[in-house]
Amino acid sequence: MMKPRVLVTRRWPDAVEREMAKVFDIDLNPSDIPLSEATLRDAMGQYDAILPTVTDRLPAAVFQGPARTRILANYGVGFAHIDTEAAKASGIAVTNTPDVLSDCTADIAMTLMLMVARRAGEGERELRNGRWTGWRPTHMIGTKVSGATLGLIGFGRIGQAMAKRAHFGFGMKILVQNRSAVPAEVLARYNAVQVPTIEDLLPQCDFVSLHCPGGAANRHLINGPRLDLMRRGAFLINTARGEVVDEHALAQALWFGAIGGAGLDVYDREPAIPRELLGADNLVLLPHLGSATIETREAMGFRVLDNLTDFFAGKQPRDLVA
Ligand code: 8YV
């Protein structure tokens, strides 16, 4: 039997690429240069499966050419870069990789929270630049994380992994805003309280961490008026998707001291970062590292492999999202 033809759009961990090559007729991307929309559109006519990542844009136009592709098995949990309606209309299945990256993404959110509150980025810059003059009682005073109130917007797997760390590790009080009602027993695990709206949540929090999906529905969910609802010394953490935050409004809030600071792992136009953000000292910036550990990146790859194997065996893949 002919092996399905599979296109991997970026370089993946070696162990996964090796394993996939045994099962499928696979084309890898050793140069790791992101594919253009035109290349992806052509690929739809040549491959049975395409394995995209967040750096691939798959709008409706990509689905309008000749179609051989039957599944887009996304490497990553977020899939707002794929027009799933267009995929569905073309009879193309879409899968993602949940669960396996929840811990590491929550770890990065926690890293950002600690770094910005305790001024770790600023401190390191000072030291490396030879500007540290020594210990003093008033040097680089930050904000205490332990025992503070954390607001979580979005309470799926990653939001819950964050609540676990914050509650059990740091004794934080947890408030949750989520589009659907969270079961009482789930909230009880973290002694968390669900509030009806983002407007209810923001004024009550010392830290706000975003764990909702990206895409058009949540574009600029955090905008100027909502940043104004945050406490003056509060911190915003975004490990979800860049488009969820209006970056211009955030820059203004940071520069004018409307909030205490922010920690970002994701950006609206990655890898471009607005200049007005780059200069803000009360901002910690990471280059989309949420899932970037060898354990997780391999697990994500093997999860894609599972989804593909099931799909081509005629079974429903476990992570079907469209
Ligand atoms: C991935 C992520 O690195 O899974 C996601 O949605 O944001 C990251 O963990 C990236 O999206 C891979 O496509």
Topology:
Blueprint: E1 5-8, H1 14-23, E2 25-27, H2 37-43, E3 49-51, E4 71-73, H3 84-89, E5 93-95, H4 102-117, H5 120-128, E6 149-153, H6 157-170, E7 173-177, H7 184-189, E8 193-194, H8 198-201, E9 207-210, H9 224-229, E10 235-238, H10 247-255, E11 261-264, H11 275-278, E12 283-285, H12 294-312
Parallel strand pairs: 1-2, 1-3, 3-4, 4-5, 6-7, 6-9, 7-8, 9-10, 10-11, 11-12
The protein binds 2-keto-D-gluconic acid (8YV).
Structural features, described:
The chain is an alpha/beta fold and about 325 residues long. The protein folds into two domains: about 5-100 and about 295-310, Rossmann fold (3-Layer(aba) Sandwich), CATH 3.40.50; about 100-285, NAD(P)-binding Rossmann-like Domain (Rossmann fold), CATH 3.40.50.720. About 35% of the residues lie in helices and about 15% in strands. It has helices at about 15-25, 35-45, 85-90, 100-115, 120-130, 155-170, 185-190, 200, 225-230, 245-255, 275-280, 295-310; strands spanning about 5-10, 25, 50, 70-75, 95, 150-155, 175, 195, 205-210, 235-240, 260-265, 285. It has a seven-stranded parallel sheet with strand order 8-7-6-9-10-11-12, with helices on one face. The protein has a five-stranded parallel sheet with strand order 2-1-3-4-5. Strand 9 (about 205-210), helix 9 and strand 10 (about 235-240) form a beta-alpha-beta unit. Helix 1 packs parallel to helix 12 and helix 4 (about 100-115) crosses helix 6. Bound molecules: 2-keto-D-gluconic acid. 2-keto-D-gluconic acid binds next to loops.
CATH class of the largest domain: Alpha Beta
- β-strand number: 12
Shape: globular
Overall pLDDT score: 98
Q: Name the structural class.
A: alpha/beta
Secondary-structure arrangement, i.e. CATH architecture of the largest domain: 3-Layer(aba) Sandwich
Task: Assign the CATH topology of the largest domain.
Answer: Rossmann fold
| CATH homolog superfamily of the largest domain | NAD(P)-binding Rossmann-like Domain
Residue ranges: pLDDT <50 for 5 or more in a row?
none
Strand order of the largest sheet: 8-7-6-9-10-11-12
Q: For the terminal residues, how far apart are their CA atoms?
A: 27 Å
| Total helical segments | 12
Q: Give the amount of beta strand, in percent.
A: 5-15%
Largest sheet entry: 7 strands, parallel
Radius of gyration: 21 Å
